[in-house]
TrEMBL record:
Native source species: Oldenlandia corymbosa var. corymbosa
Classification via InterPro entries: AtTam9
Record's protein name: OLC1v1004711C1
């Protein structure tokens, strides 16, 4: 007797089967075309997105933000 930990019982009744149900071929073709259209999409004129301030601060703390010191937009900051 005593305080012995109980052994986990193995579940011998679990049976895993990998069965693929029959698929409609027209549905499969439609799904393939739809996925190809979605994943092949690329915008023509993507606009720059400014990340949230806490992302910028995190990147700055880890040294992931590199500045181009010759950038004319930053020249007034580096005088």
């Amino acid at each position: 007797m005593g305080n012995k930990p109980a052994r986990p019982q193995k579940d011998k009744e679990t049976v895993l089967l990998k069965i693929v149900p029959p698929l409609d071929q027209s549905y499969v073709r439609w799904l393939f075309r739809d996925l190809e259209r979605i994943h092949g999409f690329a915008p023509r004129n993507p606009k720059a997105i400014k990340p949230p301030d806490h992302y910028i601060e995190y990147m700055r703390l880890n040294g992931w933000l590199d500045l181009d010191l010759d950038d004319p937009d930053l020249s007034h900051l580096l005088k």
